[in-house]
Amino acid sequence: MSRRQMHLAAHFPGVNNTTVWSEPESGSQIEFSSFAHMARTAERAKFDFMFLAEGLRLREQNGAIYDLDVVGRPDNATILAAVAAVTEKLGLAATISSTFNEPYEVARRLASIDHLSGGRAAWNVVTSWDKFTGENFRRGGYLAQGDRYLRATQFLDTVMTLLDSWRGDEIVADKATGEFLRDADAGRFDVHVDQFDIRGRFSVPRSPQGRPVVLQAGDSDEGREFAAASADAIFTRHGSLEAGQAFYADVKRRLAAYGRTEDQLKILPATTFALGDTQAEAEERGRQIRRQQVSGQTALRFLEQVWNRDLSHLDPDGPLPDIDPLVVDGDTPRVSQGRAADRMYRDPLATAREWRERAAANNLSIRDLMTEVTSRQSFVGTPSSVAEQMERFVEQRASDGFILVPHITPTGLDEFADKVVPILQERGSFRADYTGSTLRDHLGLAPLDARASV
C-alpha cells in the first residue's frame, strides 16, 4: 500500500520550558556548535528544515527575568547564515516579526540567506503582540489583534513585491562583447498601502527560490485565515488525533477561497517524543522527562500567568488556590511580561473554573495539573511504535508531518534520527534521500516562475 509521505522538521528549543537544563548532556544555546550539531543531525536524517523561534525581549515575571527560558540568543538570520555554511540540503527557517521590523530589511535578509544556502530559506511570520516587547523599539506600543494581522498581511505582500522586483534575467553577459546588459527597471518597487509607503530599488538579485518558504504559527481564527491565504506551512500545537483532524480540516477547507489546493499548505504540529526498548520503559522515561520539564517552580510560574498573582508561597504539590485570578485592566498590571498567557487564556476566570473542575475530578496537584495542560503532542513508545503512531496522524489527515522539539539541546534529536527515521524510511513513509536541492523541493511545493510572479 502506498503511504502518504511525511514531512519532518527540527525545532531548536530554548524559548520555553521544553529543555531539561539539569541533564548533564544539556549544552549551550548560544554557542554555534550547538546549532551546527542539531542542523547536521537533521540533515543526516533528511529532515525538511530546522526552525528557530525568537524572542525580541527577555521575558519577565514578578519583575524579574523569567528564568525558564534561555537568557538571550543571537539574531536568527545571523545564525542560519552560519548554519548554511555547514549544511548542504537542510532548509533554514527563521522566525521574524512583522510588527517590529521593516519589509526592506526582512526581504534583504531572507534573499541573502537564500543565496548563501542555494535556495533553502524560510520565514516564520509572527505578529508580536505586546507593549512590553514594543518598548525595545523606537515606535514602542503595540497593535490590536486586527491591526497586527493587517500589518502582517501588508508586510508579507510588500516583502514579496520587493523579492519579485528582480525577474532573474536583468543582468546578462554578452558573450560576443564581454559586456553586461542591464535592465533599467531591475529591482524597482513602489508600494503605497495603509502600513507602508515606500519606493526605491531592491538591492539583492532574485535568489534560487525567488521567494522563501513562508511559515505561519497561529491557532487563532485570524492566524488560520492568514495561513490559508499566504503560508506554505502552518506550525500548530494541536495534540490529540481528533483535535488535529479538526484543525486540519478547518484550515484546508479555507484554501479554496484563495484559489489554492490542499497540497499547497502543509500542516505541521509541534511534537515531543520519548523512546524506550519497551513500551513500559518509554512511558517511564516520558513521565520522568515531563516531571523535569515541569518542576514545582515551573508549575507555579505557569499558574501565575493565568492567576496574575505572585503565588510563590504555594506548595506546588498542593491544591489550586481558592482565590480567583486578577483580571488585567488599567489598574492591575500583568505579573508576566512577554509571555503569551493572555493570548492562550483570554478568559482567566473561565480557565480557573475549568482547571479546578479538572483537578478535583482527577485529584491533581498544581504540578500535576500544569504538567497536563502544558503538554505538547508526545509520541511515547519503542521506535517502531512511535513510527506507527506518527504514520497514523498523517494517514488519517491530522497532519502532514511534524516539527520535533527535543528535550535536550543540542543532542536530543540524535536518538530519533538513529532509531525512528530508518523505520519510517523502510516503511516508505519518509524519504530515503533528498530528491531536490531547495526547501520548496523538500516540501513538495511547486517551483516559482520568476516571470509569472511579477
Description:
- There is one protein chain.
- This protein is an alpha/beta fold.
- The chain is built from 16 helices and 16 strands.
- Helix 2 (76-84) runs parallel beside helix 3, helix 3 (103-117) crosses helix 5 and helix 9 (296-307) packs across helix 12 (366-373).
- It is globular.
- The two termini are 42 Å apart.
- This is NtaA/DmoA family FMN-dependent monooxygenase.
- Its EC number is 1.14.-.-.
The main β sheet shows up as: 8 strands, parallel, barrel
Domain count: 2
Please tally the helical runs, counting DSSP H or I stretches of 4 or more residues: 16
Share in β-strands: 15-25%
State the end-to-end distance.
42 Å
- How much helicity do the residues have? 25-40%
Instruction: Give, in spatial order, the strands making up the sheet with the most strands.
Output: 1-2-5-6-11-12-13-16
Based on helices, strands and strand pairing, what is the structural class?
A: alpha/beta
List unreliable stretches of 5+ residues: 450-454
The shape, in one word, is: globular
Task: Examine the secondary-structure arrangement and name the CATH architecture of the largest domain.
Answer: Alpha-Beta Barrel
Q: What is the top-level CATH class of the largest domain? A: Alpha Beta
